[in-house]
Structures are given as structure tokens and as C-alpha cells.
Amino acid sequence: MSKILTLDQIKAASDLPREEVDVPEWGGSVVVQGVSVADGMRLLKDMQGEKGEIDSEKAALLAFAYGVVEPPISRDDLEWLRQKSLGAVTRVTQVFMRLSGLENAALKEAQKNSFVTGSGASS
Length: 123
Fold this sequence. Notes:
The protein has 123 residues and is of the alpha+beta class. 44% of the residues lie in helices and 12% in strands. The protein contains 6 helices and 3 strands. It has helices spanning 7-12, 37-46, 56-67, 78-81, 86-100, 105-111; strands at 18-23, 28-33, 68-70. The chain has a 3-stranded antiparallel sheet with strand order 1-2-3. Helix 2 packs antiparallel against helix 3 (56-67) and helix 3 packs across helix 5. The protein is globular. The protein starts with 6 loop residues before the first helix and ends in a 12-residue tail after the last helix. The relative contact order is 0.18. Mean pLDDT is 85; it is low at 117-123.
């Protein structure tokens, strides 16, 4: 049986996982990190389109921007990111989603016809 944690132990825990992701298309790697609850909720809200639905293309690009911490990517970088390799962006985004635990129903809905999973065209 596991030990019961104290609040101080939970507060002190470094719990945002990081992973280096090889991107051969770009000749190197990037570091991807999972997000906090606050950033994850902000990301899910930011993924919504004008009518409140999940915008698949926006979701994939924002997940990339939120996840890549080395080198730092900002929302201002999303426009040029649209022109980069689908395979590279998808690989990095999938790692981010796994590290962040964002494989819930809302994100799966965004993935259905998105290049996040490579299963369809972006909207």
C-alpha cells in the first residue's frame, strides 16, 4: 500500500513531466513539457472556435505552442508553424498530449478530423 502524502509533499512535488522529442525533419530535438491544471484549462478554452466547438487546427497548433519549452514557442509563432512539416508537428503534439493527460473526450473530439492524429484533414 502506498503512503498517504501530506499537503506539503504534494505542494513540493515537481510533477510536470518533460521529454526530449527528436525531430529529424528539423535536424535536432525540442523539449516538451506537460501543463499545469491552470494552463491545461486555458488551453482547452483557447482551442474553441467561434461557436464553442473545438477547432482542430487551432487545437494542434496551440498544443504545440503550450508544450514546447525548449526552444520557447509563443502564440505569435503559430502562423509560421502552419507551414512546417505535418509529421514533425504531429509527433511533438502527441507527446505533449500524453505528458499532459489531455487525452480526454474534448481533445479526442478535436483529434477526429485533425492532423493531431494524422487521421484526416485539418479544418
